[in-house]
């Protein structure tokens, strides 16, 4: 069965060209298109599509807002962000929004196909070219590394709570907590709670004891 794709981009010509390319790829099928946030919300793409491909810059707001809304509604929906902006801030915001992947509009079509396949198979695992380098630069910068929700998860983990306990305390599903933990580990470059504690203290994520 083909992976069903919904496209969200305000340029009709770009949507049509992308739909033509995607429909020409084995195993992929475009089942819907929207040109704005309003149209996308009305279409409710998560009800028909397996993967939604969303442009960051839409005429009535940021496509990342739509990504966040769709991720809250479904943890299984694949969400691919398309952008002309090749910068760390856009990449990190896409990661924080719950996107499955980010692809530059200037990338070859094969990169878009790969992102769609990844988003379908692993919707909660963010993939983007240059992610490791962007996170490394962000770790060395004084700006906030984590979202407020991620800080809450870190605090609960370092207080000794299990993933299930964190989920209950913060009113999240277990899989959502695990997604937050995975993002935090990526951002801080750690692999376990011991490393998390060291980096949390280093970056001032938690108050001094």
Automatic annotation (TrEMBL):
Record PTM 4-aspartylphosphate, positions in chain: 55
Segments forming domain Response regulatory: 4-120
Q: Which GO terms describe its molecular function?
A: DNA binding
Q: Which SUPFAM superfamilies match?
A: C-terminal effector domain of the bipartite response regulators, CheY-like
Biological processes, Gene Ontology terms: phosphorelay signal transduction system; regulation of DNA-templated transcription
Q: Which Pfam families match?
A: GerE, Response_reg
Q: Return the InterPro entries for the record.
A: CheY-like_superfamily, NreC/VraR/RcsB-like_REC, Sig_transdc_resp-reg_C-effctor, Sig_transdc_resp-reg_receiver, Tscrpt_reg_LuxR_C, WalR-like
Source species, domain of life: Bacteria
Q: Which UniProt keywords apply?
A: DNA-binding, Phosphoprotein
Residues in domain HTH luxR-type?
Answer: 139-204
Q: What is the protein's given name?
A: LuxR family transcriptional regulator
């Amino acid at each position: 069965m083909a992976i069903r794709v919904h496209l969200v981009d305000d340029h009709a010509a770009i949507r049509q060209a992308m739909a033509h390319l995607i429909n020409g790829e084995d195993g992929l099928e475009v089942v819907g298109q929207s040109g704005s946030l309003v149209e996308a919300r009305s279409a409710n793409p998560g009800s028909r599509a397996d993967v939604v491909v969303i442009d960051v810059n839409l005429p009535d707001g940021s496509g990342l807002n739509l990504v966040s809304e769709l991720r809250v509604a479904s943890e299984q929906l694949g969400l691919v962000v398309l952008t002309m902006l090749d910068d760390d801030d856009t990449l990190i915001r896409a990661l924080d929004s719950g996107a499955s992947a980010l692809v530059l509009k200037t990338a070859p079509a094969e990169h878009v196909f790969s992102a769609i396949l990844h988003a379908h198979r692993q919707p909660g695992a963010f993939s983007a070219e240059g992610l490791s380098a962007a996170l490394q630069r962000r770790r060395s910068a004084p700006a906030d590394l984590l979202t407020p929700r991620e800080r809450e998860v870190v605090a609960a983990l370092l207080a000794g709570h299990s993933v299930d306990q964190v989920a209950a305390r913060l009113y999240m599903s277990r899989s959502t907590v695990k997604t937050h933990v995975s993002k935090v580990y990526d951002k801080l470059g750690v692999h376990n709670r011991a490393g998390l504690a060291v980096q949390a203290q280093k970056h001032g994520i938690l108050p001094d004891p």
